[in-house]
Design brief:
The complex is a heterodimer. Chain A is an alpha/beta fold. Helix content of chain A is 34%, strand content 27%. In chain B, strands 1-2 form a two-stranded antiparallel ribbon. The chains are: A alpha/beta, B mainly alpha.
């Protein structure tokens, strides 16, 4: 097969960081090439260089055999390089057709030629099998359909290379399957595809070859057939991992209940929720998207108002009406969305670290810079946060390091009870393991940890006990010895089947 | 000096400081009598009141808010203080002290109203303070029966024209206010929270902080600076009047914005605001000295405000380039 995109010895550095140090990658026509690596390995920087957001310091790129050096994202687009990002760039009040052709609406004088627009949009939609009228406003679509619109947008122009950045992060298994069908079809049309994902099993579904990056270097390119997951993981982290999850029979939860809620009700909840969390216990919450897992955590933390329900901490009754009450009572909530809720991106790392415990880092109302520095440096070392300095704005940290910054903030608060929503979403294998180890450190220290996760293997791997939510109700409780996917899913669908 | 440090300086107050120095240079060359001691004293006197109000405005704008009521609240504060200070039944020292408290209290009460209403009912500050602008103006005309108050105690009036080596006493007061504002924002827990809320209110709230307290307090602080500015105004002009203060809110906002504070909140400092107020003062004075008429001056000042903000975007770009 002829090569469509060839990258040779591409390098790029930022102040204090060598993001790419001689990366090689070739993508052939009709090939799906998986790009793998931990957070901070250089995947995003590489993609940004290919798409004209960053100019490489050295190295060459060839597109269809001709030198390719995009100065702006627009250059990259007109050369036929398109990206479907994890976060969509759609204008929600405009129609599907308008979104697809937004940058080149067909015109009739000064007016938009709507009949032609809808006709052409329909053609693209047929090509990827999206069954919706091109006149539908995008806001009415579901996540999976919005992604298809993004793909349609990319395909509507002459597209040579299509890059998918974590495409399945927000999709259900069924929609993911459909996405893979579309990718297979695009391959047959001769488009070169770069596929980025943390879910290694997906690679076997769609990819032909894979390339692993580590610390900005190409570790190797392999055919997917004949390469096992442990081999890939070893390439990614540079060492082999014995087990994906740390779990020790030695660390057992105490009998003592440190957190209990009775008859919790909040806006939109149809059922009352009651459960207990023990000292030294890692309790998991499972359930389908929309089963009110996150809403329950937020209501308990006082982030959203609750209608009724009691909360007991160490047997004492607490009235939690705001996050402030919750933190004072010894709770922490690490939200799923760390960029908009967990961190203040335009403030430096050290100011984020002390944000939930300003009382500890201040005296007589004045900030104690020395203590701030000490605490932040301690967590940078303990959590191995990769940053040029503690003054670095959190915006400039990579995804995994941002998650560690959120952890640093709450570890410094040192609460007894920790709610953790999707602790490892969008995080690579190596950093995942570090976070699991940390959770185990916490419970070994007598804290109680509650995690909400969409990843069943993760919950079964690290938790002592799992509560399964179904449509706002705790449909079942499963002890570790009885863990099985069937059981969890059985409970998860229970309330929807009635 | 390394590049990083230079870019940091350009992003901070030094960048606007350069513009101020350039302006002074231009007027020294083209304006007769610009660079004289007497004229400098003049400029410092003229910018004092705007500077004090603009420091309070900086707190509010850093939170992503706005206070349009400062002009008419200032007028209200002068009348409250003026009624007390002209009371002949008290010893002079007591009358002056109570007058200062009346001015401060009036300003803080208006700020408290602004803050509470916009926080409790989640009404945009723009609307609440626009309402306060009208309420305070109406109230001051009612209270004063639309009359100007003068005949303040002599000992009070003389303070307004005191200077030390050419630096007016009232400007010294305003520098103290800038300094207090700077220390509060940069070194205290309160200041940290103002920046945090201005940058990302939800993340600050979920970190377990009482957002409402900080936001309301910022409006009260703004009101307090208006009260202080009212007393300085009385020192300078020796009158209290129900019709003064029109357009002060716009001058204060302009000083804050020229000083590099972001209108969407989270970024800026009172030092920048002081320089912003100085740029406006120098422009007004310098343009007059090179013989420009009132109307033309207004056109140029307005243009400079826009230009300063445009330059600010380049400054950010330049500093990023140097990084």
């Amino acid at each position: 097969m002829p090569t469509v995109l060839e990258i040779r010895a591409l390098s790029k550095s930022f102040p204090g960081v060598q993001a790419l140090a001689g990366v090689d990658l070739t993508v052939e026509r009709g090939e799906c090439h998986a790009l793998l690596g931990e957070n901070g390995a250089g995947k995003s920087t590489l993609i940004k260089a290919v798409c004209g957001f960053h100019r490489a310091d050295s190295g060459t790129m060839l597109l269809d055999g001709a030198t390719y050096d995009p100065a702006t994202p627009h250059d990259a687009m007109s050369a036929g390089i398109r990206v479907v990002y994890q976060e969509f760039n759609l204008l929600s009040y405009l129609s599907i057709a308008e979104n697809i052709f937004f940058d080149r609406l067909p015109r009739n004088g000064v007016f938009v030629d709507y009949p032609r627009l809808y006709r052409e949009a329909q053609n693209v939609l047929d090509r990827i099998g999206l069954d919706a009228s091109p006149r539908t406003p995008v806001e009415l679509l579901g996540v999976a359909q919005m992604q298809l619109v993004e793909i349609a947008k990319a395909l509507s122009a002459d597209c040579k290379v299509l890059i998918f950045d974590e495409p399945t992060a927000t999709l259900s298994p069924k929609d993911s399957g459909r996405l893979f069908d579309i990718i297979r079809q695009l391959k047959s049309e001769g488009i070169g595809i770069i596929y980025i994902s943390h879910h290694l099993n997906e690679i076997y579904e769609v990819a032909d070859r894979l390339t692993v990056l580590r610390n900005g270097e190409t570790i190797g390119t392999r055919n997917v057939d004949g390469t096992t997951i442990p081999e890939i993981v070893k390439m990614m982290v540079g060492r082999s991992m014995e087990s994906e999850y740390p779990f020790s029979e030695d660390v057992r939860p105490n009998e003592k209940v440190i957190f209990e809620t009775r008859n919790l009700q909040f806006k939109g909840s149809a059922h009352k929720v009651s459960f207990q969390l023990h000292e030294g216990e890692l309790l998991g919450i499972s359930g389908l998207v929309g089963s009110r897992r996150t809403e329950t955590l937020r209501a308990l933390f006082g982030a959203d108002p609750k209608i009724a329900g009691e909360v007991f901490i160490h047997g004492e009754r607490f009235d939690i009406r705001s996050p402030r009450d919750a933190v004072a009572a010894g709770l922490s909530l690490l939200t799923e969305d760390r960029k908009s809720q967990g961190l203040i991106l335009d403030m430096p790392l050290f100011q984020n670290t002390t944000m939930a415990a300003l009382d500890k880092a201040s005296a007589h109302g004045f900030m104690d810079r020395r203590e701030e520095r000490r605490a932040t440096e301690q967590y940078v070392a303990e959590l191995s946060i990769k940053t040029p300095s503690i003054q670095q704005l959190c915006r400039n940290l990579s995804g995994g390091n941002q998650q560690k910054a959120v952890l640093a903030k709450w570890l410094y608060r040192d609460s007894r009870i920790i709610f953790f929503d999707e602790p490892t979403r969008g995080i690579d294998v190596g950093a995942k393991y570090e976070i699991y180890l940390l959770l185990w450190d916490l419970i070994a220290g007598g804290k109680g940890v509650l995690i909400v996760s969409s990843d069943l293997n993760e919950l079964m791997g690290v938790c002592h006990r799992i509560l399964v939510f179904s449509n706002g109700k705790i449909a079942g409780e499963i002890a570790r010895k009885d863990f099985s996917q069937e059981k969890i899913l059985g409970y998860a669908y229970q309330e929807y089947l009635k | 000096m390394n590049k990083k440090r230079l870019s940091y300086l350009l992003m901070g107050e030094a960048g606007i400081g350069i513009i101020l120095i350039l302006l002074c240079g231009v007027f020294t060359v083209f304006g007769r009598n610009f660079a004289t001691g007497g004229n400098m004293t003049n400029i410092l006197t003229q910018i004092s009141i705007n500077t004090v109000i603009a420091v309070g405005m900086t707190f509010v704008i850093l939170l992503g808010g706005i206070d349009l009521s400062v002009g008419s609240v200032l007028s209200l504060c002068t009348i409250l203080a003026g009624l007390v200070i002209t009371n002949k039944d008290m010893p002079v020292w007591l009358a002056i002290s109570l007058a200062i408290l009346a001015g401060l209290g009036g300003g803080m009460a208006c700020g408290l109203f602004n803050g509470l209403v916009s926080e409790i009912w989640k009404i945009p500050a723009f609307v609440v303070t626009l309402g306060m602008l009208n309420m305070a103006r109406g109230a001051v005309l009612l209270i004063s029966d639309s009359r100007t108050i003068f005949n303040f105690p002599r000992s009070f009036n003389v303070l307004g024209s005191v200077t030390f080596w050419g630096v007016p006493l009232i400007f010294t007061f305003s520098v103290v206010i800038v300094f207090i504002g700077y220390v509060t924002l940069r070194f205290t827990v309160f200041g940290r929270m103002i920046y945090a809320i201005g940058n990302n209110e939800e993340a600050a709230r979920l970190s377990g902080h009482n957002i409402r307290f900080y936001k309301v307090t910022a409006y009260v602080i703004c009101g307090a600076t208006v009260g202080i500015a009212a007393i300085l105004y009385m020192l300078r002009l020796n009158i209290a009047s129900p019709i003064l203060g029109n357009g002060f809110e716009l001058n204060a906002i302009a000083a804050v914005v020229i000083g590099g504070t972001s209108m969407s909140g989270g970024k800026g400092s009172p030092i920048g605001t002081l320089i912003g107020a100085a740029i406006m003062g120098v422009l007004n004075n310098g343009l007059l000295l090179i013989g420009m008429g009132d109307f033309a001056r207004q056109v140029v000042t307005g243009f400079i405000i826009v230009l300063a903000v445009v330059l600010d975007t380049y400054r950010a770009g330049l500093s990023r380039m140097l990084e």
